[in-house]
Amino acid sequence: MTEPLLEVRDLTVEFRSGGAWHPAVRNVDLSIAPRETLAVVGESGSGKSVTALAVMGLVPAPAGRIAAGSSIRLSGRELVGLGERELDRVRGDRVAMIFQEPMTALNPTMTVGEQVAESVRAHRGLGAQAARREALRVLDLVKVPSAARRMDDYPHQFSGGMRQRVMIAMALACHPAVLLADEPTTALDVTIQAQVLSLVEDLKREHGLGVLFITHNLGVVALIADRVAVMYAGEVVETAPAAELFETPRHPYTEALLASMPRVDRDVGALEPIQGNVPSIREIGPGCAFAPRCAHAQARCRESRPRLEPEGAARSVRCWLRTASP
Predict the structure, then answer these.
(1) 6-94+176-317: CATH number
(2) pTM of the predicted model, to two decimals?
């Protein structure tokens, strides 16, 4: 069995609020193999982006912290507990991240070529000219048209789709083993979105990347994911191969997400919105976090928190109604 490129075990991330520490991510387990895309889905506030920031070592201190007992291993190397200088050697090199908003994530005072070359110079020790040549190579790789000419342009001279390609180029410049993509298609129209998804898929196959793809768009998940982890209120509530998740969802939250998604074979009036909201980190009680919104909740669901239980070799679910846990 292939060793995972990224292995997250018992990850808990806490933030200080109201004079106390509250977990925003709780006991998360994830793994990504070479040439695999793991999609992490859930509503805003589910803990998806915080999980990615924790992997990058970017949880903002002193208001946030990774709790004791958490483990994040990249190609077998433990990242939790590394100092800032050591993390700087890893970030952008062995693990890279594409952030959510292409319209604002780039530095408006630097050309796109300078921004791509900056990472290469920092991690590969190349001189200015060699870094520029490498930046051009990566911009060509992500199919920026006329890259030799456009690399001296500034971000405001690029469309949203081209800015996203530049961000992907920055992430790939140092040949990372793992790529974290945090809703990279959210601000793009459907045509550019399809191009970006195709580009990431091609790069994954050609370069052996492991991809953690964060999104709330289940249509995107169906297109690109090998496996899916569904998050709610800071914890993973279901994991499954993508095709199985869509065919036979097990957790009531997954079922509700799928029911709320528009489909071409159903009238728009058939949409079933999920009533209520994801609870804040200060509102989570002792039971299942989804219980207040769940149509199937019982007394036990509100009183004690279920464990994430395996279902066969490839699936797991966190639900009292779907497992036989004591």
Answers:
(1) 3.40.50.300
(2) 0.90
